[in-house]
Amino acid sequence: MATFTGGQLVARMLQAEGIRHVFTLSGLHVAPIYAGCAELGIQLVDTRHEQAAAHAADAYARLTRGPGVAVVTAGPGVTDAVTGVANAHAANVPLLLIGGAAPTFNQSRGALQEMEQVDLFLRITKWADRIPSPELIPAYLAKAFRIMTTGRPGPVFLEIAWDVLSNGVEDPKLPTGYRTEARCAGDPAYVDRAARAIAEARHPAVIAGSSIWWDDAAEALRRLAEKAQMPVFLNGAGRGCLPPDHPCFFQHTRKDALAEADVVVGVGTPLDFRLGYGEAFREDARLIQIDVDPGEIGRNRAVEIGIVGNARLVLEQIEAALGNTPDRSDFLRELRRREEKKREKLAAYEATPGAPIHHSRLARVVSDFANRGDPMFVADGGNWVAMAAKTIELRQPGRWLDPGPLGCLGVGAPFAIAAKLLHPERQVWVIQGDGSFGLNGFDYDTAVRFGLPMVIVVGNDAAWGQIRLPQVALFGEERSPATRLAPTRYDLVVEALGGHGELVTEPDQILPALERAAASGKVACVNVMLDPEAPMKSGMMGYAV
Question: Are strands 3-5 and 168-170 parallel, antiparallel or unpaired?
Answer without folding.
Answer: antiparallel
